[in-house]
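Side project, low priority. Logging it here so it doesn't get lost.
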Amino acid sequence: VEINYKNNEEYRNKALNLSYQIALARYLGWVTLLNKQDIGIIINDTSSKDYVSGYSIENEKFTQDKYSALVTVNFDKQKIEQLLTGKKVDYFLKKGPRTLLIPLVKFKDRLILWDDPNPWFDAWLRRPLDSNLTEFILPSGEVDDLITLNAEEAKSLKYYKIKNLTSKYSAEEALVLIVNLFETNNKYSFNLEAYNGLKQEQISLQQLGLKSSNKLNEDLLSLANKFADNYDDMWVKKNIDR
């Protein structure tokens, strides 16, 4: 969080209260199928602080006119359950399986996995992998990773190759995520194919609202965030249905 100074203002308390609201909205987004508007209504109608069991503050910074900090918020799950049950909202709180991501880029006739640059791989590196209900992990790209699985084998979903890489990272699932890049008149467009590498199935993606801003790195980071949120919802819906 970052806030501007005002005379005689308790900026740390203000930052904490803002953090509670942001964190609760994010958590409800993970564990329910509510849209942002409906979550906003709950947040506005709720004292977020009442559901907090603890917090920690890191990287506090003070400048001439701004205060900023990284705040980690912990919630009381029993109180969260009471909140959602009282509002008749379906939810599922258990984290998703440890999931290995295998991000490929296909551009013209080239398929990129371990090669540098792989902007799609970099996009996942730039975001916190624990910022979702599903526990995402990335392979390190060491020499034995390159030997275990190459780009063509990943694209063709070679089961035993993907299984071996998944086992190395103690993951329960493996997702092969292929971004297809197209360039026309110095402008690009892209789409995403997603596969469960162990189940050998294509993942049906809901509309992710992909739009090209002609800033590839920003677009791929946005795509990673949207896919991660969508995959969380699939996990939650599956368990709510069950």
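Brief comment: The mean pLDDT is 91.
Revisit when time allows.
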